[in-house]
Design a protein that fits this description.
736 residues; mainly beta; Jelly Rolls; Immunoglobulin-like; six-stranded mixed sheet; 51 strands; 14% helix
Length: 736
């Protein structure tokens, strides 16, 4: 089946599932900024999405990190915007037209997430606001922030609702990648990557919602950044956070010393794997390093096969340097978020071998930068077969993570010379060979003995284990006759990889005799980092499961559904029984079975609960009988994401969450309803606007009712004062 056919089938499945997804009104988040923070700090972040206006909980996976929702900034309409402008102007008049600079700045820092989030330790302390003016100043700053965020026609409506979240990281929070989700009274959002960092953080001012670009008038939608914000001065080591707007370039100036081995590593596509309406389907950052004279000294637009660039630079002399980052084709939007770590950090460029046998001691050699005295922590001795992250640590700093595979088959190491059949390395099946394509043009050849009718599998694990190898496999007989050949083999379980570069063969041998497996790089590249694991064995039928989406919202005492997708391996064609594994109290599912011809099953989840105060974790399990053995696998929670209008990918998540909500539940008012006082006897009520020609009120009952609803919502959100609210309600009553 071609990739186009697979993509079309995936699109049909997605459209079939769309009504159910819409019925659940699942919250969606499209970016988190900044997408992480330093251990031992408390800071605020912006989460942009859709259907999150009533978000009441933020959850970060793992331990040592807590988060709470501070404010939800829903997308305003024009009428609400006008009301807020009138309100803030009235407040400013009450402050004498303009608040004292020190008081205003202090209030903004207290009320504005953007200001507190970007505060620098070097910022001088200003005079605090007078106590009597502080509440008014806080309200002015809050409304000004919402007005500044307003965009008439956002470039992406699904990013235009903003949730401000306060995050607290304990000093001993384990560093590395986490996941962040938002919970609302009606469900849990998709997860996005969130990092616990070890270095001081520098964050640029958040960008406002990007405006829709009109053909021929694109310059009107470009971000107008003040000149003083184009370049920031920073101190190495640090982590840089920013968002890229259309046509924007960010620069960072820093001091460096001769001999420093700087690692400058960006994360962008890692934070938001796919942007469906962008080509390519992700933020493609480009980093350039300049010296004090403006001469380019280093450049990177990717790191090997990954779109996120990394610069490894040994400083030749003391002085100032400037790091520049932008998008490769100068696109931009608020979800073009990046994190760049910069300093003499440990960085692992390659490990060997790429895996080992489960339960056996693992000896792993590593290469990279700033690894003197560093130790690589292998998987635990009791780690199960599968892929596990490993990292090096040096003086308390943790390096980048690399995948390490564990399997149950016997293992050996490739031995040179084995470049052709006369010098082939003899192996006995089953075996996993750990090897390298040592140099450009190198071939590794392995010889085994087979019998007529035997089926053998040759499978390469390289790109799926972060090796740059683009493998190429072929099988020949003793006379050199080509029996099978493969370059790329699609693996739906390969996560965010967009190039299925690993090769796979499953061949029935025609006769007794000697056979040769040839392994090389398609582009004739090679080097010590071009490592691989080659499995040579009879077929090992098996399966993997993915449950999509990674969260489900259920109405009280009713049902919801998720899709469970099966990835069959080595020709496995048996039925798979699917159900919830050890469901928590109040949850159940009727088992469903995937027939040998099915790839997707619909699993119905039932609840007897009226509501759940917090999200709960669910686990989906699949069981099958394979060669007389009962085999069970947990389904991996995943998000079905589109890349650049067509290709779809299963992006794994850490947890599957469920939320039960009461559809009739109405949250308590955030502020007590206001009952306007009757006008004083000596004052005349406001006069309604009247159409002089017809002698009738200018506004209809529906318009007045809509206005009253808007006033009520803004008042309950704490955005209108009592007096302003009373005045506007009186105007509405007079207009009826």
């Amino acid at each position: 089946m071609s990739k186009v056919q697979i993509a079309v089938l995936a699109l049909v499945g997605f459209l079939a599932a769309a009504p159910a997804a819409q019925a659940q009104q699942r919250p969606y988040i499209g970016f988190v900024y900044p997408a992480g923070g330093q251990q031992g700090t408390t800071f605020q972040i912006r989460v942009g999405g859709q259907g999150v206006d009533d978000a009441n909980e933020a959850i970060v996976s793992g331990v040592g990190v807590s988060a709470r929702v501070v404010e939800c900034r829903r997308r305003l309409n024009n009428q609400e915007l006008q009301l807020l402008r009138e309100q803030v102007n009235e407040l400013k008049r009450g402050l004498g037209g303009k608040a004292p600079a020190g008081a205003k700045s202090a209030a903004k820092r207290a009320a504005s997430p953007e200001s507190t989030m970007m505060a620098s330790p070097a910022t001088p302390t200003k005079t605090p606001a007078p106590a009597k003016d502080a509440p008014t100043l806080n309200l002015v700053a809050r409304i000004d922030g919402m007005i500044a965020d307003f965009v008439q026609r956002p470039a992406c409506a699904s990013l235009s609702s903003i949730v401000i979240v306060e995050v607290t990281m304990s000093p001993d929070a384990p560093p590395g990648q986490r996941e962040l989700v938002l919970a609302t009274p009606r469900g849990v959002s998709n997860p996005l990557v969130f990092h616990v960092g070890q270095l001081p953080e520098v964050s640029r001012k958040p960008m406002r919602t990007a405006e829709l670009q009109v053909l021929g008038k694109e310059e009107q939608a470009l971000r107008k950044r003040p000149e003083e914000e184009v370049e920031d001065r920073v101190t190495v080591p640090c982590t840089l956070n920013g968002q890229i707007a259309s046509g924007e370039v960010n620069r960072y100036r820093f001091e460096a010393r001769k001999g420093q081995r700087l690692v400058i590593s960006a994360q962008a596509r890692n934070l938001v794997p796919y942007i469906a309406d962008a080509v390519p389907g992700w933020f493609q950052p480009v980093m350039t390093l300049y010296d004090a004279r403006g001469k380019e000294v280093a450049y990177s637009d990717d790191y090997r096969f990954k779109p996120d660039p990394t610069i490894l630079y040994q400083v030749p002399k003391d002085g100032q340097y400037v790091l520049q980052i932008t998008d490769a084709i100068f696109r931009g939007r608020e979800d073009f978020v990046y994190r760049v770590t910069m300093g003499e950090m440990p960085f692992v460029t390659s490990i060997f071998p790429l895996g080992g046998r489960a339960g056996a001691p693992a000896t792993v050699r590593m290469k990279g930068w700033n690894l003197e005295g560093a130790e690589l922590t292998p998987p635990a001795p009791d780690a199960a077969p599968g892929v596990h992250p490993v990292a090096a640590s040096r003086e308390g700093l943790v390096s980048n993570c690399l995948p390490f595979a564990l399997d149950t088959l016997p293992e050996c190491v490739e031995k040179e010379p084995n470049n052709d059949p006369p010098h082939a390395q003899k192996v006995e099946l089953p075996i996993i060979v750990n090897g390298r394509i040592d140099r450009p043009g190198d071939w590794d050849v392995f010889q085994f003995t087979g019998r007529a009718g035997d089926t053998i599998v040759a499978e390469v694990y390289a790109r799926r284990l972060d090796s740059p190898l683009d493998s190429f496999l072929k099988l020949t007989d003793a006379g050199g006759k080509l029996l099978a050949i493969n370059d790329d083999h699609e693996d739906p379980a390969s996560g965010v990889n967009t190039h299925d570069a690993d090769s796979y063969l499953m061949v029935k041998l025609p006769a007794d005799g000697t056979y040769y497996v040839h392994l090389g790089d398609t582009a004739r590249h090679g080097g010590e980092e071009y490592a691989y694991r080659l499995r040579l064995s009879p077929p090992q039928p098996d399966f993997a499961l993915f449950v999509v989406p990674s969260s489900v919202g259920l109405r009280s005492k009713t049902t919801g559904a998720v899709n469970v997708q099966a990835v069959r391996k080595d020709g496995f064609a048996g039925p798979i029984k699917i159900g919830l594994k050890h469901p928590p109290e109040g949850f159940s599912s009727a088992p469903v079975s995937l027939s040998p011809t099915q790839a997707v099953a619909r699993l119905t989840v039932r609840t007897t609960l009226t509501e759940s105060k917090q999200p709960v974790n669910l686990s989906v399990e699949g069981r099958a009988n394979i060669k007389g053995r009962d085999v069970a696998h947990d389904a991996v929670p995943a998000e079905d994401r589109m890349q650049a209008f067509l290709w779809r990918h299963l992006v794994p998540a850490e947890e599957m969450k469920a939320m039960v909500f009461n559809p009739s539940y109405q949250p308590p008012a955030k502020r007590a309803p206001r009952v306007p006082a009757p006008p004083a006897a000596e004052k005349k009520p406001p006069t309604a606007s009247v159409d002089s020609a017809a002698g009738k009120p200018k506004f209809t009952k529906q318009q007045v009712a809509s206005r009253l609803r808007q006033l009520k919502i803004l008042f309950e959100d704490g955005l209108l004062t009592d007096s302003f609210y009373d005045q506007k309600v009186a105007e509405c009553e007079a207009a009826q």
